[in-house]
Write a structure and sequence with these properties.
Nuclear Transport Factor 2, Chain: A; 7-stranded mixed sheet
Length: 178
């Protein structure tokens, strides 16, 4: 009888950790599905499908310096982007698996990587992009929502220092004037 009570006590002590692990796994699966839904909507140019992924006051920043706040503004921008012929001619050619990092049980950061070929800009340049997207998500009323999204392009090594040579003289002039 004591042995049964001991086994039951050990099982009860492990149960909360086991439930937490199951909950974390379920949350990870939900988050990965949200990111894949986002990428699929992007692939097919269907911005409206992304609406449900964003919190009402979400913030979205792209690699070209565009910032949008609020789900309606984000979806409107994406609709215009997906309709743009320069974007529409591009295609996803490689995707990495989303990486999920939990900050708290109800807050997660996700990294997503993909490559896009053939995006034509307004000036006629055609880009092959290596894109890193960081999402900050919160769980609200049982659903994961994007609160903040930052899109960044990976640049070739050495290219990031060229603008500094242009900017440095401006800082020198400002410092001299002060």
């Amino acid at each position: 009888m004591i042995r049964i009570a001991l086994v039951a006590a050990v099982l009860l002590l492990r149960l909360p950790g086991s439930l937490a692990a199951q909950s974390r796994a379920a949350d990870s699966t939900s988050i990965v599905q949200l990111v894949r839904h986002h990428v699929d909507a992007m692939r097919h140019g269907r911005a409206e499908l992304q609406r449900a992924n964003y919190a009402p006051d979400a913030v979205w920043n792209n690699a070209f310096g565009r910032r949008r706040t609020g789900v309606d503004s984000i979806v409107a921008f994406l609709q215009a982007l997906y309709a743009d012929s320069g974007y529409a001619q591009s295609r996803l050619v490689n995707e990495g698996p989303p990486e999920v990092f939990f900050l708290r049980p109800d807050v997660a950061v996700v990294h997503e990587y993909h490559e896009r070929e053939g995006q034509r800009l307004a000036d006629g340049r055609v880009l092959n992009r290596r894109v890193h997207t960081t999402f900050v998500l919160s769980k609200e009323a049982g659903r994961w929502l994007v609160r903040y999204q930052q899109i960044s392009d990976e640049r070739d090594p050495g290219r990031h220092d060229k603008p500094a040579t242009i900017i440095a003289p401006a800082f020198t002039l400002l410092a001299a004037a002060a």
